[in-house]
């Protein structure tokens, strides 16, 4: 049976653990979690029945898969004391940390089989979108295992090269914040138009949910869906025209390009 170790038991690790257990393919007894916080360890035991450890070395002792769920800034320091054990045992390493390159992970861990992935915060609700990239040393069974682990919290998409992980960061990794910003703006505008903040909020959030579900369930792309609800000379056309006049597409393009560039910069700084 596959033994899984999480280094770091924060929100993203918790969401993946919850998804795995809910999915039923992985038993709690096969999951080990290392976290420095006693309160967080107790919470994980109570919520999921997993085995927790204060020491990272204890968690990885028998692990076939080690999921690195720590902040990018501390990744090197966390891996340093584990290098000897990891390089000797050669488990599959899955990193969910942004900006840490495959080369750096290979050097710091001593492992050959590495998967980099970029999940996003809706994974907390099992509605995540995760991009993954595997090193050449990851064999098919390990790739399928990584896919199964991340698919427990939502959609998974494999990219062709490591550079595309930065593009994934720009689209889905940081993407939820873009939608939250649009929601904020719509709520504020609705309030200015005379609605109460509570009413504007309810209408905005439900509209966002409905639009997303329509797009996911449709056999046409979002552009066509937009055209279908934009009647000539109507209210929606006037609003869309205002967005286009303000160069919304250029703004989105510039924002996502800036996000991707920052991901590249972070990779150089941290690696």
Give a brief rundown of this model.
With 271 residues, the chain is of the alpha/beta class. It has 13 helices and eight strands.
Explained architecture:
The structure is a single chain. The protein is an alpha/beta fold. The chain folds into 2 domains: about 5-160, NAD(P)-binding Rossmann-like Domain (Rossmann fold, 3-Layer(aba) Sandwich); about 175-265, ProC C-terminal domain-like fold (Orthogonal Bundle). It has helices at about 10-25, 40-50, 55-60, 75-80, 85-90, 100-110, 140-150, 165-175, 175-190, 195-215, 220-230, 235-245, 250-270; strands spanning about 5, 30-35, 50-55, 65-70, 90-95, 115-120, 130-135, 155-160. The chain has an 8-stranded mixed sheet with strand order 3-2-1-4-5-6-7-8, with helices on both faces. Helix 7 (about 140-150) links the parallel strand 7 and strand 8 (about 155-160). The longest helix is centred in the C-terminal third of the chain and has 23 residues, at about 250-270. The protein is elongated. The protein starts with a strand and ends with a helix. About 35% of the residues are buried. The mean pLDDT is about 95.
Mean pLDDT: 95
Series of secondary-structure elements, N-terminal to C-terminal: EHEHEHEHHEHEEHEHHHHHH
What is the total domain count? 2
Major sheet details: 8 strands, mixed
**Count of discrete alpha- or pi-helical segments spanning 4 or more residues:** 13
Structural class: alpha/beta
Radius of gyration: 21 Å
